[in-house]
Amino acid sequence: MIAEPDGPEDRLRRLTTIWSRAVFPVTSTSLTRVEFEEQLLPLARRLSELLRARSYDADAAKAVGAALVGAHCTDPEALARTLDCIDAYLVLYCGEDGPQDELRMRSSRLQHAMAAGYAQALRERTLAEQEAIAQAALQAQGVVAQALHASEARFRAVFEGAAIGIGIADLDGNVLQVNEALLRMFGLTEQALRGRRVQDWVHPEDAPQTWRLYDELVRGEREHYHVEKAFNRTDGTVLWTNLTVSLLRDADGTPQYQLALMEDTTERRLLNLRLRYEATHDALTGLPNRSLFFERLEKALNAGEGQRFGLCYLDLDGFKTVNDSLGHAAGDRLLVEVADRLQSCATAPGEMVARLGGDEFVALTTGPGTERTVDELAERIMNALVTPISIDGRDLMVRGSLGIVEGPAGERTAAEVLRSADITMYRAKSAGGNRSELADPEADARAITRHGLTTALPTALERGEFFIEYQPLVHLGDGSVRGAEALVRWLHPQHGVLGPDRFIPLAEHTGLIVPLGRWVLEESIRQARAWRERYGPQTAAGPLRINVNLSPCQLSHPGLVQDTIDILERSGVTPDALCLEVTESALIGADDDLLKPLRRLSEMGVDIALDDFGTGYSNLANLRRLPVSILKLDRSFTQGMQQFPADPVDLKIVEGIVSLAHSLDLAVTVEGVETGAQAEQLRILGCDTAQGWYYARPGPPERLHDLALVDATG
Questions:
Q1: Domain locations in the chain as residue ranges
Q2: Which CATH class is domain 464-696?
Q3: Which value, to the nearest 10 degrees, does the dihedral of the CA atoms of residues 338, 340, 346, 348 take?
Q4: How many other C-beta atoms lie within 10 A of the C-beta of residue 279?
Q5: CA distances from 351 to 178, 407, 638 (A)
Q6: d(CA 689, CA 203)
Q7: Buried b / exposed e across 299-315, counting CB within 10 Å, b at 16+?
Q8: Residue 338's closest CA among 321, 317, 365?
Q9: Please, are residues 670 and 688 in contact by the beta-carbon 8 Å criterion?
């Protein structure tokens, strides 16, 4: 048994050995195969470095292809075998530790660049040969009489033995003489080819300047020209060539003949087309990939006045569940089937479907009437997903969320259009999925703003852009200030002061809520200490307390209890100065593990308030198992009390909640008190404390100083 290579150098040597064995039989070199392998080793090492480099270096890969020509690997079969070897083994032996899909894409691009470098180097070498042949031809016709025989012999040797096709015609275009290489290219006999005229070889893919250059040459206005030209063979295939045509003059300088030198580039062109296809199409589904889609989209957006575009951005709903339950192989087959269905939806001129990656697809339609056609395309796509897809004997229901963007060309970049479509697609997914949504500039702007706020959150905390406002908590019985609720604000450099509803959900989503919540707790307790130092441990009516909101993410964080203890100890504040507010929705159905931190804090003397009570539809009897000492009644229950007389239903509900809470030894705080009548009615119903604009809006801590001072002086 042969040991497998176990180190990077061993794997590189193995790759080089395979490469040399594949290419050596078709290489014109005097080296032994082992010597030839040593010549390929630095090229293999360079390819390995390029495969794993951070950025793609096309010029370096081209240099590797050019080096093959320098190593006498000039047979077209040498390039084909090289690329087959690189495609099969480069990632296997030199990229085993990296992401395979990305490395295979990089390998494909390296092959493309190698082929381009090889073609350029071979072309330059061929042009050098062509120049030598042309010089030999001129010398053969221009030598003095006494050396005519020797010169003709040399010309004949070059003419017949050259690997490139050579033909001579008169200035009227009649073919006079051709060599064997040219006959093999066209697949014709010498008699058949010599009966042709140059002008008969017009091809639909000729460049516009091809025949203009020809006319200038036969008129004697230019000495030579070089073009890429296609020729039709008699068997129906196309011969692609690098064609150089030179003018031959007599001793007096009068034009006499035209000399054509042809290099067969058909195989190279087909190889380039294959590499181009692989670089622009998805390997799994065969659809155009992100790169080709962006090319088409940019072309559509630059189509000119009067042109429009429509784009549908599709993301499959629940595709991850298929991968997790049935495996990635089943997921891949599902994607292939979806791709086939989508392809059948976009068959009209100006329509295309592409796969961006994963389970994301896009469909593009262009033209002057895309307002209508994009809606029709979206409807066909959604209908195509209705029929179940059978995978491994299971019928899978496939649904998708679709974002639609339509508009005139020239107003937005491709990146902006795709971003709008992506945002719209996620809006459809957030609405439940299995639906389509039309792009809304205002919704896009909100989403972009949310993203900007999300990315700015971490540095905002470091730069000290957050601050806290305090809203007093007032005792309804005697009107005394009992404390305040800490409400965090963000002073954003561009958007100004932002309330917590703008950034707290973003902080929860990114996990920043934990350090932000810790900062709020530290600042609030520091302020509580400042109040107690100013007014003593308690006011005439009782101790001042600071209320701090606790996010569900903080509640489940393992460091909550210890962080709270550390902050209280560092500040020298007793636990009875702190009340942590937890929303009712966060505690619905909470198990003992989730409640354990709250119980520990409650046992320490920290008050726990159940915030927004009445909005979570919890079982009132469930209150007995929760470690709470305060109910904060949601403002929706007291809005009917702002007017006189109060809504009798609201009165009965609040009266019942207060009675139940007091029977469980729970205090009741009411939010959103805005009128004196409301405050008086809540006092009569037995509510303990209240907060709202009737007493004070959230503001700096000095405002609480003023209110507390008024309370202390009567």
A1: 8-132, 163-270, 282-439, 464-696
A2: alpha beta
A3: -170
A4: 15
A5: 48, 15, 58
A6: 92
A7: ebbebeeebbbbbbbbb
A8: 317
A9: no
Q: What is the pLDDT of residues 682-694, one digit of tens each?
A: 999 999 999 998 8
Phi, psi of 251, rounded to the nearest 5 degrees:
-65, -25
Instruction: Give the Å distances, CA to CA, from 658 to 523, 639, 655, 661, 667.
Output: 32, 16, 5, 5, 8
Task: Give Cβ neighbours of residue 391 (< 8 Å, ≥ 6 apart).
Answer: 322, 326, 330, 333, 334, 337
- Cα dihedral 607→611→614→616 (10° resolution): -110
Dihedral angle sign, alpha carbons of residues 627, 631, 634, 640: positive
What whole-number distance in Å separates Cα of residue 439 and Cα of residue 405? 5
Rounded distance between C-alpha atoms, residue 220 and residue 342, angstroms: 57
Q: Classify each residue of 125-153 as buried b or exposed e, where b means 16 or more C-beta atoms within 10 Å of its C-beta.
A: ebeebbeebbebbeebbebeeeeeeebee
Predicted pLDDT of residue 155:
60
Q: Which CATH architecture has domain 282-439?
A: 2-Layer Sandwich (3.30)
**pLDDT at position 143, please?**
47
Residue 516, C-beta contacts closer than 8 angstroms, at least 6 positions apart = 457, 461, 466, 488, 507
pLDDT in tens, 159-218: 776 778 888 999 998 988 888 888 888 888 888 887 788 888 899 989 889 999 999 999
Cis ω for the linkage preceding 645 (within 30 of 0):
yes
Mean pLDDT of the chain: 85
Per-residue pLDDT reduced to its tens digit, 352-407: 999 998 999 999 999 888 888 999 999 999 999 999 999 888 888 889 999 999 99
Nearest alpha carbon to residue 639 among 687, 684, 668, 681: 681
The pLDDT assigned to 537 comes to: 56
Structure confidence by residue, pLDDT tens digits, 310-326: 999 999 998 988 888 88
Q: Which of 364, 233, 349 is nearest to 310 (CA)?
A: 364
DSSP letters for 174-218? BEEEE-HHHHHHHT--HHHHHT-BGGGG--TT--TTHHHHHHHHH
Token pair in block for residue 638? 């007291």
List pLDDT tens digits, range 466-508.
999 999 999 998 888 888 999 999 999 888 999 898 888 888 8
What beta strand segments (E) does 288-396 contain?
308-317, 351-357, 360-367, 389-391, 394-396
* Dihedral (CA of 525, 530, 536, 541) sign: negative
Task: Count CB-CB contacts under 10 A for residue 521.
Answer: 24
4 token code pair:
């497998």
Looking at residue 22, its amino acid is A
Residue 714: pLDDT band (50, 70, 90) is very low
Helix (H, G, I), strand (E, B) or coil at 166: strand
Please tell me the distance from the alpha carbon of residue 668 to that of residue 662, in angstroms, as a whole number: 8
Using pLDDT thresholds of 50, 70 and 90, give the confidence band for residue 670.
Answer: very high
Two structure tokens written together for 199: 């002008």
Which pLDDT score, from 0 to 100, does residue 648 have?
Answer: 82
- pTM score, whole prediction: 0.54
The structure tokens listed for 599 are 């119980």
- CATH hierarchy code of domain 163-270: 3.30.450.20
- The yes-or-no verdict on residue 536 having pLDDT over 70 is no
User: Edge-to-edge strands of the sheet including 175-178?
Assistant: 175-178, 165-170, 255-264, 238-249, 224-232
Judged by DSSP in three states, 542 sits in strand
Residue 145 pLDDT exceeds 60: no
For the residues 580-594, what does the mean pLDDT come to?
81
E strand segments, 208-295: 224-232, 238-249, 255-264
Strand order, beta sheet including 435-438: 351-357, 360-367, 308-317, 399-408, 435-438
